[in-house]
Q: What sequence folds into this?
C-alpha cells in the first residue's frame, strides 16, 4: 500500500507539471514567443510525460485495474489520446493560428475530462 501511495504522489505531481508545462507552451504558441523553440521547452515535456505514464501504468498494475476492463480507466486512456493528438496539433502540426488555438482549447478540455474521471471514477459527465 505504501508503494501505491508513493506512485500516486509521483503521478499527481507529474499531472500538475504536465498541465502547467502545456499551458505555458500554449501561451507561448498563441503569443508567437521564440521560447517555444528552446531546447528545454521541447525536451522537458517528454521527460515529465514519461514519468506520468510510467507511474500511471505501475499504479494500475499494482491495483489490478486495466484499461478496456475498467470503464473509468478506459475513459482516461481515450481522453489522454485526445489530449495528445490535440496537443500535437496545437503546438506543432496546426497550419494556422486559429487551428492551433482551437486544438489548444480542445486539449485543455480533454485534460480536464481525464482529471474529472480520475477523481470521480465515472466516465460520464453530469
A:
Amino acid at each position: 500500500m505504501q508503494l501505491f501511495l508513493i506512485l500516486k504522489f509521483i503521478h499527481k505531481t507529474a499531472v500538475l507539471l504536465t498541465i502547467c508545462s502545456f499551458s505555458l507552451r500554449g501561451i507561448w504558441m498563441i503569443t508567437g514567443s521564440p521560447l517555444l523553440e528552446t531546447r528545454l521547452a521541447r525536451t522537458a515535456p517528454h521527460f515529465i510525460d514519461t514519468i506520468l505514464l510510467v507511474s500511471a501504468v505501475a499504479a494500475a498494475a499494482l491495483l489490478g485495474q486495466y484499461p478496456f476492463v475498467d470503464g473509468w480507466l478506459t475513459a482516461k486512456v481515450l481522453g489522454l489520446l485526445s489530449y495528445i493528438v490535440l496537443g500535437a496539433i496545437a503546438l506543432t502540426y496546426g497550419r494556422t493560428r486559429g487551428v492551433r488555438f482551437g486544438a489548444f482549447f480542445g486539449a485543455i478540455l480533454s485534460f480536464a475530462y481525464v482529471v474529472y474521471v480520475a477523481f470521480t471514477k465515472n466516465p460520464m459527465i453530469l
